[in-house]
Each structure stands twice: as C-alpha cells, then as structure tokens.
Amino acid sequence: MPAASLLLAWLTVASPPPQAPAAPPQSVYALEDDAFVAQAQEDLRQLERYAQGLRRLSEEVKTSRALYLQKQSEPYTPDQKQRLLTTWAAFFDYFVSTEVIRQRYWDFVKEPLLTQPKKHAWGFLLTHGALTTVLAHGLTFAELTGGRKQLEVLLDEPAPEYGLPARAFARFKEKVIHVGTTTQLLTGDGYKQQLRPLLVKAGALDAPRVPWVMQEMKLNSEVAKGLLIKRGPVLFAKAATDLTQDSAQRAFFPVQRAVAEWMGDTRVHRSGQPLISRAQVQALLERMEPGDILVARQNWYLSNIGLPGFWPHAELYVGTQQELAAYFDEDKDVKAWLATLEGKPQSFTGHLATAFPTKWAAYNQTDTHGDALRIIESISEGVSFTGPEHGMRVDYLGVMRPRLTRVDKARAILRAFGYQGRPYDFDFDFFSDQTLVCTELVWKSYAPSKELRGLSIPLVDVVGRRTLPANELVRLFDAEFGREDRQLDFVAFLDGREGEGLAKEADAAAFRYSYRRAKWDIAQE
C-alpha cells in the first residue's frame, strides 16, 4: 500500500471526532526542532523503561499462571487476591504511562513529511513504538484473564489503595482489543518500512535507543498479530460494535479523553510549573526539622511507575549545615554518642565532614537555583543531594516528623549519607543495599537496630516482592494517628488543586485520607 494510503488509513481509524476542548493544551509539535528531538529522546528513554517493566511483569505472570487458571468456583485467598491486584495495578501503571507517550506523538501524521521530516519521523517512532508495546502485553494479559468471572470481578472493583478506579479492567479489556487500534497496528507496521529512508535522512536510526525501539516494534507486533490470529474471533466477538459505540479511541484506558490528552501533555504544558509555589516552600522550610520525612507527588510524572498508590515518592529532609548545627550540637544525647566515636568529634556536622569529606563538601554547595542543599532522595540519577526547588516544589507535599530522639535522627542521617551516590533501584529490591529506591532510602535510614530505636515500617507484597510504596508511609501515619505509641507526627500538607493551578495548605485529616485517592485522577478531592 502506498505511504499516502497508509497515512489515510491511520487517520480514518484513529482520529477522534472534532471536539474543541475548553483550553487546548500546547502540543509537543509546537517545540522547535532541536527541543522536539530532545523531548522525543527523553520520552524514548521512558518508553524503554516502561517496556522493560511490562516485560518483567509478563514474566511474573508466567510464574503465577496457575493462579490465573485456578478454578473460578474456588475462592481466592486474601494473599492470592493481593498478588493479583498488585500485579494488575503495576500493569495498569505501565499501560497508562505508555499510553501517555502514544498520545503525545499521535499527530505526527499532521507534520508534513517533506517540510517537517524530523518531527514526522520521531513522532512515528514514539507513537507506534508505544502502541506495539501496549498491544503485545495488553493482548497477552487480556487473553489470560478474560472470561474468568471471579478474576474479572476482582480486577474490576475499585481499589484506590492500589491506584485502581472502578471498571478499570473492563475498560482496559474492551479497548485493548479495539478494531481501531488493531488496524492502526497493521497500517503502522506497513508504514514503518516505507518510512525507513526518511528515518535515515533524519538521522534518527543512529540515535540512542532507536535500534532498540525498531526491534521492539518488530517483536511486539509479532506477538500482537500472533494473538490476533489465534484468538481474534473470540477477542473481537464482544467488541464488534465498539468502534461505533466509543469513537474516542485516544483514551483506551479508564480515563476520560480530555484527562488522557492532558496527561500526555503535562510535561510540555506545565513543565517547570508545579502547583506548589516557591513562596509556599520557603514558608514551609521555617517549620522543618532535620530528620523529617517527606512524601511528594507530581501529577503524571511519577518516579515509581509500577508501585501502587497516590503518593509515589519519599525523601529525607536533612537541612543546611547551620540547621544541623542548631538542632544537634547542643543535645546532650548527641554529645554523649559523639564521645564514643573514634576521634571524639565535637559536633555532628564535624563528624559528617570527617566521615564523608567529599560528600560533605558536595552537600554544602548550592543547587542550580542558588538554594542550599537540604534533602537526600533517591531519584532516577541515584541517591542524591537536592535542594527545595527539586524536592519540595511539586504538586502535592506531605511532611511527617518521626517521634524519635535527636540522637536517633542523627544516626539516621548518618546512614543516609552513607547511601548517597548509590544507583536508583528500578527493581525495587529491598534486600540489596547496592541500589535504592526512594522509600528504601528512608526505610533503611530509620531501620531499628541495637543503637537506633528507629521506625517500624512494615514492608508489603507487590507483584510477589517485599517492598514499600510511599503510600504505605501515609497509611501507617493514618493507622497510628492519635495513639500514644504513634511513630509519626503531622507537620504539613500542601494539597494541589489542578483546576485552580495552585496548592493549598490542608490539615492532618486531609493528609490522613490522601493515600486513598485514585492515582490516575486529576480531579482530586
């Protein structure tokens, strides 16, 4: 089929009906060529991460296949239900995140092939790479789970604690086998071959990860087509009228079309414009103390894709050198502890400087905004020292204070300094200290020991692995609230308001409820 015909087919089956949104978001295609390519390469990096996550989950499902094939007359145990839900929630995360990328580059067909070759070529790579990833893994999951009544009921019920809205599974199953997206798969595969000379001309084939995505497209397309050939009549029997019933195909996950479009554009439309203002952060800093635990969220830009819950990220507040000195140096228990250490350091800051001279020198620098570094957090670059502009200027921020002595907090901060510089743990393996995820840094810094009373924070099972989503920290705070033996006190909650474009100070009651919020909903309470 000629290229022009393939593009026409793409537009025919894929374009939504003309609906003018109230406030159209800025398109990624509005960027200048160099900025567009840089954004596309960053999104390709994210797509690779999501594809790897889906592949890991597919392997997990294979090992648990007997659970999915269990007789539906035999009720699932609570442990089985948790394993099924955490696996589905992680799948859902990766599906929606991949769909975000697919939608961002959807309109590559509107970028003229001759006058905008870079945008046309890169746009196709991103949107078709995302589509083939979603369909290969989505059809595999749908085939295994579809038609099993008890399982479908379980996966379809609302489970906010796992980030799952009502009917998530039913909508997923309907849309992942949509005739429109399947036709788009076939036309895109054909167009890829005819587009190869343009990819060469645009210099795209030599760029990082492009060989990977070309191979990924091929492998995923083969899987998806194989499933369609094998199970097509059965899969499509229920969805035969779906094209006419729901022509808004861009959002083929359980989110409204407008929300899904907004999700895909957030990092362009609101990049660098978090809901929490700099003035709010500066005011909050006056109430912070070394050792405070922060939970943070940026809408649709999550650091922990694959883990359930509203809160995706946790950090350890350390404070400036001056704050550390004011908080620890006159405390009698800290002084007694320091006297037992080699060299008998006179101050806690002096001990940090001696124990970690290079790290301490780096910590006493400023960030790119000219602010003093105050936070230790594990981000994609690894366990890092960051300033308030990075760690606190987000969309939602909660602060909790451990009910521990100052010497316990000093020991926890000392541990955290020891972890600084280690890589981020994309596998969420809490039994290895060589790489750390964000909550793992907090959990291990405050882990109880002979010398440290610490915090008793239970791990949970997620996809068969013991780990700790940030949401569990807020769940623990809620469960222990008001008790004499509670481990955490409330400090602050800056609650984002997407509709108003700002954040408001909220109370402890709102913070206690926050972990129950739906993960993929911008209309937060």
Rounded mean pLDDT is: 81
First-residue to last-residue Cα separation: 50 Å
In which order are the strands of the major sheet placed?
Answer: 4-3-2-1-5-8-9
Helix share, percent: 40-55%
Structural class: alpha+beta
Tally of strands: 9
Overall 3D geometry? globular
The largest pleated sheet is described as: 7 strands, antiparallel
The H/E string reads: HHHHHHHHHHHHEEHHHHEEHEHHEEHEEH
Radius of gyration: 25 Å
Low-confidence stretches: 4-25, 233-269
The number of distinct helices, counting runs of at least 4 residues, comes to 21
Strand percentage: 5-15%
Describe this structure in words.
It is a single chain. This protein has 525 residues and is of the alpha+beta class. It is built from 21 helices and nine strands. It has helices at 3-14, 33-63, 65-68, 78-104, 117-145, 149-156, 168-176, 179-201, 210-237, 242-245, 257-269, 278-285, 321-328, 332-339, 348-355, 357-363, 388-391, 406-419, 438-445, 470-480, 508-514, and strands at 293-297, 313-317, 375-379, 382-386, 396-402, 460-462, 465-467, 488-497, 502-506. The strands form two sheets. The protein has a seven-stranded antiparallel sheet. Strand 6 (460-462) and strand 7 (465-467) form a beta hairpin. Helix 4 packs antiparallel against helix 5 (117-145) and helix 5 (117-145) crosses helix 9 (210-237). The longest helix is centred in the N-terminal third of the chain and has 31 residues, at 33-63. Residues 4-25 and 233-269 have low confidence and may be disordered.
